[in-house]
Amino acid sequence: MAREVLKLHDLDFCSRPQLVCTSKYSYDNKDLAVAPYGDYWRKMRKICVVELFSTARIASFQSIREEEVSLLIESISSSLLVPVNLTEIVNSLTMNIICRVAFSKKNKPGDHKSSEFFRLFKEMQALLGSFFVADFFPLMGWVDKLTGLRARLERNFRELDAFYEEVIDEHIDPKRVRTRQDIVDVLLHVQDNSLDLTRAHIKAVLMDILTAGTETSSATIIWAMAELARNPSIRRRAQEEVRNAVGGSKECVKEGDLNRLRYVKSVVKETLRLHSPVPLLLLRESMRTCEVGGYQIEPKTRVYVNAWGIARDPKTWEKPEEFWPERFMDSSIDVLGQSFELIPFGSGRRVCPGLNLGMTTVELTLANLLHCFDWKLPNGIRTDDLDMDDAPGLKLLLPILGPAKLKKRKRITIQTPSRPKKASHNWKFAPTWFSLPPFPMAFVTEIWGLGAPPAWASSHPGRLLSGYGEADPQAT
């Protein structure tokens, strides 16, 4: 069914619905991710594919990725006797990479502007994960004003807009010292040759890059490390491959070494299969009447593609609930959108244009974590004790990692919440991407035959994709 929607009828279903929050943050759909299909979208996609995410452009940011990963390794190495929250560090890594690639800035401890931007960004994620009544009942949009969501949205948008204005002003300042060309520089250059590209378009594209390129990559990295902690034999095989390919002479893995790491790439694919960063792909909307699976679909119908269900379909996958990277070693299935058994980045015209940038970041970080450290669970924690249930949200419930020093090689221990026998943890859920009401979620996944929602969807049906879990240290 997904093949029909995303390939045979791709042109019929390649538009996006106009939602309150995404329309606001995209400057009235002037971005690429949520813009309706048409001449404008085709022009923006060409700019993004040719100018922003081409192979040459991604390669030009190689030094940024390698430098930030090296700083990550140094940070862990310098804190071997103090517990380290690897989730927090990896989130900071991906954010710094994206910010440096986009507008040559990064989070500096103690810097007020950096702290303020991260506060605004987290508030934006919370609003993107909020339920706006107007998205489903347009005539009742006044409810969003009563709840205060509209006011929060307007306030956060104004503050982010002011930040982007400052970034653009800095880039057009003739006194600015340019070390390398970032994405804002590229977009300003395109604007000089195109009267149709305004500041609003540039800010909308920046919003896409920030929201799509940060937590998706960090979540994949942490899930991979959690699965490797639960499967020591797989971890050892991945480490042996990295260390044999790189050798003992190198302190860090470079991007040039990644093509030799076939098993590590399989680990990443298997992680994306079991823990898709976006379980339901971004909404699609039909543009004309068509027939799918014997059903007549009317225009303006919203379509949810359950990538999570597809990736765990027992009709397609052998041992679908097991973490088994070997399934990809001699398989032609990839994550580029051509294999409909695995579509974490979407497929067709709406496939993510920055997937190569994200995959490179994930593979480089994971390879270095395996190369530079040995990993084991803390004393007293068994692999069966690890709670690997997906929590609702774009960013899922991830483990916390902490280091411990050994005599020979640096060894990092993994601390992750074990499943308590009694109620010992309170889990707080903060919205991160978007919420869906209970009826459409359960209904659409069944009507399209893309697999049933996860078991926990029945207990949290309206927040299936709305937040991430965080342990409450005050819980008793």
TrEMBL record:
Keywords: Heme, Iron, Metal-binding, Monooxygenase, Oxidoreductase. InterPro entries: Cyt_P450, Cyt_P450_CS, Cyt_P450_E_grp-I, Cyt_P450_sf. Its cofactor is heme. It comes from the Eukaryota. Gene3D superfamilies: Cytochrome P450. CDD domains: CYP71-like. GO terms for molecular function: heme binding; iron ion binding; monooxygenase activity; oxidoreductase activity, acting on paired donors, with incorporation or reduction of molecular oxygen. Heme binds at C352. Pfam families: p450 (PF00067). Belongs to the cytochrome P450 family. This is Cytochrome P450. It comes from Vanilla planifolia (Vanilla).
